């Protein structure tokens, strides 16, 4: 199961699956546009594609977030450093919150960002799929001509949404996330936005995180392109 | 992993955020609203036809309905948008200015250190930890968020 998740979680695999499904639908729609029974094929096809995209996105995102939070096996030196620090965390002294409360809101900044993005992406995927279905259904009901441009635009939105999610997961899994200004701004935005209800330090508080020189050298090698 | 993958994934995320106006939820729900509005306009076309002289809604393209929905649902987040605190913007500016004197890895570590520093300061339960070293001042040391 873990192997399957790992395989599906790879950005190229996800992109190929999602884009392949969308391309197949476009090709089928293009062929069917010439026939009279377009609605009989396009509607089930659109429903099938949307279901595949939504199920794949939700399943893989959920598994990724779960693995990031706990029970996750570090793959490269960056993840190993985080895992080691999380494993040796201790309860804070004189904290106003109870240990249970602290544990409930302790998370890592990356997991908080992934959670936030996953929720937004879930909304976006659901809304775009619903738009697609509503558009096709309304034109089927009213019997008016359907604009292929609108269908393609909504499908492009779904594809870009999935590709963006795959890119984020790729960056997180390879230890690249947070190393550019854009990523840093995103992390800081989420941390400041949720600082009241989350402990994004993973329960570490303000403990200094200073990896030893060998670890820094290992991280440098990963960033330079070596395989972990 | 390669530098190409790093740049392309970073670029893809930026492009997707621009396409969705950095608000995927609002933009998508806005598109859905636009489609529903378009459907309602078509369903009630016979009723609305009597106002044809004032405003002929049948002439409005679906794309205009979509655009209207997207703009409408992005307005609240546009009006609510807040900039990062000045100290954080200053820290980004310092990293940008010192970029030419640093290696690529040092620049990456600076961004991670900034994130870790903000996380430590924004944590509500940031209490002294038994046996743990205190975090140095902003920008000091390398940290992993």
- What is the H/E order of chain B? HHHHHH
Tell me the number of helical segments of chain A per DSSP (H or I, 4 or more residues long): 9
- What's the structural domain tally of chain B? 2
- Radius of gyration of chain B, in Å, reads 24 Å
Please explain how this structure is put together:
The complex is a heterodimer of chains A (228) and B (145). By secondary structure, chain A is an all-alpha fold. Chain A has one domain (2-223). In chain A, 72% of the residues lie in helices and 0% in strands. Chain A is built from nine helices and no strands. The two termini of chain A are 22 Å apart. By secondary structure, chain B is mostly helical. Chain B has two domains: 14-80, no CATH class; 83-124 and 133-145, no CATH class. Chains A and B meet through helix 4, helix 6, helix 7, helix 8 and helix 9 of A and helix 1, helix 2, helix 4, helix 5 and helix 6 of B.
Set out the fold topology.
The complex is a heterodimer of chains A (228) and B (145).
Chain A: H1 2-9, H2 11-32, H3 38-69, H4 77-87, H5 99-105, H6 109-142, H7 148-173, H8 181-193, H9 213-223
Chain B: H1 3-19, H2 24-43, H3 45-48, H4 62-80, H5 86-98, H6 104-122
Helix pairs in contact in B: 2-4, 5-6
Note the main attributes of this structure:
heterodimer, A: 228 residues, mainly alpha, B: 145 residues, 2 domains, 0% strand, elongated, disordered C terminus
